[in-house]
Amino acid sequence: MSLELQTQIPIRSNVSLAGLTSMRVGGAAEYFISPRTSTELANSLVWASDRDLSITIIGAGSNLLISDRGLAGLVICTRHLRGIEFDEQTGQVTAASGEPVARLAMQIASHGWSGFEWAVGIPGTVGGLVVMNAGAQGGCAADCVVSVQTVALTGETNLMYPHELDFSYRTSSLQESYRLVTGATFKFQIGGNPETIAADTEAKLKLRHTTQPYHLPNCGSVFRNPLPQFAAKLIQDAGLKGYQIGNAQVSELHANFIVNLGNAKASDIFSLIQYIQKAIADRYGVVLETEVKMIGHF
Ligand SMILES: Cc1cc2nc3c(=O)[nH]c(=O)nc-3n(C[C@H](O)[C@H](O)[C@H](O)COP(=O)(O)OP(=O)(O)OC[C@H]3O[C@@H](n4cnc5c(N)ncnc54)[C@H](O)[C@@H]3O)c2cc1C
């Protein structure tokens, strides 16, 4: 049912979320909006606040496991908040939160700017990248963030700087902040050779495609590495590659990935996560914490 006529903002009810996640699982949002402008976003925050509804923010849904029972309240999906601006003098790029990281990485490479090649294979948005301090192949968001534009769920906007963001391994203070990232400014090295940088970016992408199961729905690394150990090695050594619950399987290609073989339920994936955690705790005495964000009731 569309509430648009009643509210003048395109909020819909009972919207399936599975197709908005890279795992392709999860129930429906009680209310849902994917705002296209900052005004729509601001109005939707007021709308939820007036009704005392909880708010869940999703980007590309590439690090999410959403419960089969769905999510109460309003889900705000940022993927239509788009725009990239290059400052040719300073090497700074400002991107809206819904911009796909891969598209941003390609544009930066074709400008001949370096410092973002590592990000090309991350299937998230700019907002998710910053919130998760996503990283790969030696780089991470914290290396290049200059500032982050945010709006509190109560409506006030704020510019935040790295010293306030507490970036560390796959985390930032934004994860507990009740703020929505509307955009971020990054700084790169200018004046490089576009061909060399594009070739490096392509090579990094190719490497990922040979070592990670891009051909099946997944949510990237399921567990944080219990440094100095690696989750994938522990899971592989425990003989769990290929282990399956329902249609959720520990990837044969990369043991820290769980893949959806088709029609898996979020509950299958959740059970598999718990199974792996218990097996690794029993065998090695190591607690594996999840990197994937599990939301809703499991
Ligand atoms: C095949 C594959 C490979 C991957 N490889 C990597 C990798 O190499 N390195 C890595 O770090 N990750 C990787 N990931 C995980 C994922 O892509 C990253 O964590 C990514 O940054 C998540 O971005 P997203 O937009 O999809 O966020 P979502 O999954 O939608 O959300 C993740 C979290 O961020 C919050 N969030 C998202 N957008 C906003 C916003 N605008 N404002 C406030 N909060 C927000 C959500 O509430 C949630 O808590 C991979 C995933 C897949 C499927």
Automatic annotation (TrEMBL):
Is the Cytoplasm keyword given for this protein?
yes
Active site at which residues? Answer: R170, S221 (proton donor), E291
Q: Which domain of life is it from?
A: Bacteria
Q: Name one GO molecular function term.
A: UDP-N-acetylmuramate dehydrogenase activity
Q: Give GO terms for biological process.
A: cell division; cell wall organization; peptidoglycan biosynthetic process; regulation of cell shape
Name the cofactor(s) required for activity, per the record. FAD
Q: What class of enzyme is it?
A: oxidoreductase
| Location within or outside the cell | Cytoplasm
List, alphabetically, the Pfam families matched. Answer: FAD_binding_4, MurB_C
Q: Name one GO cellular component term.
A: cytosol
Keyword Cell inner membrane carried by entry: no
Q: Which UniProt keywords apply?
A: Cell cycle, Cell division, Cell shape, Cell wall biogenesis/degradation, Cytoplasm, FAD, Flavoprotein, NADP, Oxidoreductase, Peptidoglycan synthesis
Q: Where is the FAD-binding PCMH-type domain?
A: 24-210
Copy the pathway line from the protein's UniProt record.
Answer: Cell wall biogenesis; peptidoglycan biosynthesis
Q: What is its main location?
A: cytoplasm
Catalysed reactions listed for this entry: UDP-N-acetyl-alpha-D-muramate + NADP(+) = UDP-N-acetyl-3-O-(1-carboxyvinyl)-alpha-D-glucosamine + NADPH + H(+)
Q: Which residues cross the membrane?
A: none
Q: Which SUPFAM superfamilies match?
A: FAD-binding/transporter-associated domain-like, Uridine diphospho-N-Acetylenolpyruvylglucosamine reductase, MurB, C-terminal domain
Q: What is its EC number?
A: 1.3.1.98
Family indicated by similarity:
Belongs to the MurB family.
> Function, please?
Cell wall formation.
Q: What is this protein called?
A: UDP-N-acetylenolpyruvoylglucosamine reductase
